[in-house]
Structure formats: C-alpha cells, structure tokens
Design brief:
It is built from 3 helices and 16 strands. It is mainly beta. A hairpin with a 2-residue loop joins strand 6 and strand 7. The N and C termini lie far apart (50 Å).
C-alpha cells in the first residue's frame, strides 16, 4: 500500500486531465518494489505481488468522489472487503495482459494536488490507516459531500455446491472424500448515493452506482485418487 501511494503522493492533476491508477502506479512486480501479500482473485484469497493495493484505489475513489470529481473507470471486488462498505470500493488489477483500472478526471478549472500516506490511527497507535487528501478549488462555503450506500436486495447463494479436485492430496486423497474449502455466501445489490451538504444539511442527493456482488456456492475439495 505504501509503495502504491508513493507513486502519486505530491502529484498535480491539471484541469481536464485524467488520473489512471494503473498508468501512474504501474505494474505490481517485485522489481518495481512491491511485495507479496494476500489478494482477491475470482473470489479466492491467494498470495500475489502487490496484494493490498486495492485499498489504495478504494481510498482514492472515495476521496475523488467526495471531492466532486468525475469518475471515469471503476469496478467492484467480487465480494465485500474489510476496509470499505459495500458499494464504496474500487478494485484494480494489472498482470498478464489483464487489466482493471480506476480513473477519475479533474473537471474543475484549477489544479488538484494529491497527498497520500499511511499513518497511525488517531485512537489506536497499533493500527495503521490509508489517508488520501485532495486539495483544489473550494467546494463552497459550508459545502461537503458524503457517500451513502444502501443494500436494496440480498441474493441467496446457489443451492448446488462447487467441487475442486485436490490433485496434491493435501486436503483429501480419494474421490469419495470431500472437505469444505469455503462456505456459501449471499450476494448483494447495492445502490450508492452522493449527498451534497450545506452546513450539515442535505441539499442534493444523486445516485452514483448500482453494484451487484454475486452470491457464491459452497466450495468443496474432492480427492483425485480412486479408493482401493
């Protein structure tokens, strides 16, 4: 996360310019200074180089949206992440010819200055938080924005289980053996709104996204060897 933030900390975005996360941060590789960490890939947690970078893109998304800027590219995770509410995340990916980008445009007539860092939480010195601040033209006296997300539908998980053959024999050995890999999970349809406030009172409310987090079936390991 620190490495990705360092790529755009202190950056100036001129009027009309678009910020592309993947273009600015670049490939997440060991050579580029990134580290191995857990990351979500098609709903599974795996170890990958640059894992955690999505917390940077998510925080930047929230900062850009509540600064009144225009979001031009944004995709959600396959499931809820622990550092963001549903409907308020922004995933990124750049590896092996596959790309998911996050981008926003400076639609103001003045420069936007980006400050990004990891700092100690104010109420817990053992906890770290990602902090991004955008500086530019004033939104107006007493004007601020906030994101509000509402779950409008809960999607039941599929009744049919999914099976993965354990070719290594680490979890199960025989074809008539099964072991739970991951529990079934509900899905959600979430609508997110951007509220404009004047001196703490809501004066405008606009929908900015309607996201669908797909439900997932229970996944079981199944053995690869015929029982004797």
């Amino acid at each position: 996360i620190r490495v990705s933030l360092s790529r755009f900390n202190g950056m100036i975005l001129k009027p009309g310019e678009t910020f592309s996360f993947n273009k600015v941060v670049g490939p997440r590789t060991i050579k580029a200074g990134f580290f191995e960490a857990p990351e979500q890939v098609y709903g599974d947690m795996v170890t990958g180089v640059g894992g955690g970078v999505c917390q940077s893109s998510t925080t930047l998304y929230q900062a850009a949206l509540t600064a009144g800027l225009t979001i031009t590219k944004r995709s959600i995770h396959s499931e809820k992440v622990n550092y963001s509410d549903l409907g308020q995340d922004a995933t990124v990916y750049l590896y092996g010819g596959r790309e998911i980008d996050f981008a926003f445009k400076n639609t103001t007539p003045e420069n936007i200055y980006i400050a990004a860092r990891v700092r100690t939480a104010k109420r817990n010195s053992k906890r770290l938080v990602t902090e991004i601040k955008l500086y530019g033209l004033s939104l107006g006296e007493g004007v601020s924005y906030r994101m509000v997300s509402e779950t409008v539908e809960i999607l039941p998980p599929p009744a049919e289980n999914k099976y993965v053959v354990d070719k290594t024999g680490v979890y199960v050995t025989y074809k008539n053996e099964e072991k739970l890999k991951s529990k079934a999970a509900e899905g959600y349809v979430v609508e997110t709104y951007l509220e404009k406030l004047q001196n703490g009172q809501v004066i405008e409310r606009n929908q900015v996204s309607r996201d669908r987090y797909e439900p997932r079936p229970a996944v079981y390991y199944r053995g690869n060897t015929t029982p004797p």
